[in-house]
Design brief:
Layout (H helix, E strand, L loop, with lengths): L1 H16 L1 H26 L7 H10 L4 H11 L5 H10 L4 H6 L5 H31 L32 H37 L1 H9 L5 H9 L4 H12 L5 H10 L4 H8 L3 H24 L1
Helix pairs in contact: 1-8, 2-4, 2-8, 3-5, 3-7, 4-5, 4-13, 5-7, 9-10, 10-12, 10-14, 11-12, 12-14
């Protein structure tokens, strides 16, 4: 039992540590642009352009859940649209890409899966933003809900993502560009590490074989079951789904459905960055249903 726990601990560390460089680079770039973004955000809604879902889906294709975690953070600050968040979450495939690349016979299937997910992510992103735009145009009282601890940023008093002041001298700026992104990344890394340990224990307790057998015997409801497995915020979920598809244990539609909702730890991190719990649950439920619908449509054709 103790040996199993140390193995889970090691796997959780290895799964988590690979996100650290991505998080650091992303937060350093964000820090570089933060003052400019926050200033222009007041006037031009920067990062909310109508083409943003395409860019978000493109980042999601990259086999690394770090980008989707950062997307959850940016959405918590309302620096990206809800459509962009959906786009990057749907496009993310976590461990599927490297696993399929290791098997040359799966290259065509991989290209098909990534293409379908990318197009669907863009379509949903545009659709979500379009619907929200229509709601606002019709004079609805529904407004974007900001975090309870989020303040309106004044032009003459700019703060960074953790309420630190953005300095204007060289020494202070260098500290912001390196130290703050590193500290921020380490905090997120530790949170990810803990979550990976928890869900690693859960997978160990239930067993990958039990999860696999449950998915392989569900018939028409296969995309719904596989999508539930995809909800597990751990790379083990994408590994199980991908390996089952490679072994012909699940259909193409079920595989795409499971991978469309599996965005690593992004959904868990959404609850950390976005304090509106009801909104987060609505996002997860919508993402689940959209993934299931995509899986059913793919299986039909």
């Amino acid at each position: 039992m103790l040996n199993n726990f140390f193995e889970i601990l090691l796997d959780a560390f290895l799964d988590s540590i690979i996100t650290l460089p991505v998080l650091f680079v992303c937060y350093m770039l964000i820090e570089l642009l933060e003052e400019k973004i926050l200033r222009k955000y007041q006037k031009n809604n920067l990062l909310k352009s109508k083409y943003a879902p395409i860019i978000s889906a493109g980042f999601g294709i990259i086999p690394q859940c770090g980008f989707s975690v950062v997307a959850s953070d940016l959405y918590g600050k309302r620096l990206i649209t809800l459509g962009s968040l959906f786009a990057i979450l749907i496009a993310t495939s976590d461990e599927a890409l490297p696993l399929m690349l290791s098997d040359p016979s799966m290259y065509l299937d991989l290209l098909l899966i990534l293409s379908i997910k990318f197009v669907y992510a863009c379509l949903i992103g545009f659709l979500v933003d379009f619907i929200l735009k229509l709601i606002r145009q019709k004079g609805s009282n529904i407004e974007p809900i900001h975090n309870s601890n989020q303040e309106i940023v004044e032009i003459d008093e700019i703060h960074g993502c953790c309420k630190h002041e953005l300095e204007h001298n060289k020494n202070g700026r260098m500290k912001e560009l390196v130290i703050h992104p590193l500290v921020h990344s380490l905090k997120i890394f530790l949170f990810i590490f803990v979550i990976n340990i928890i869900f690693g224990c859960i997978v160990e307790w239930i067993g990958e074989e039990a999860i696999s057998n449950a998915m392989m015997s569900t018939g028409f409801f296969e995309p719904f079951i596989v999508s539930l497995v995809g909800l597990i915020p751990n790379c083990a979920a994408s590994v199980i789904i991908t390996e089952l598809f490679i072994a012909k244990g699940i259909s193409l539609g079920a595989c795409i459905a499971g991978l469309s909702i599996n965005s690593g730890l992004a959904l868990i991190m959404l609850f950390k960055f976005n304090k509106n719990t009801k909104e987060n649950l609505a996002i997860i439920f919508s993402l689940y249903m959209l993934s299931c619908i995509l899986g059913l449509v793919v299986n039909i054709f």
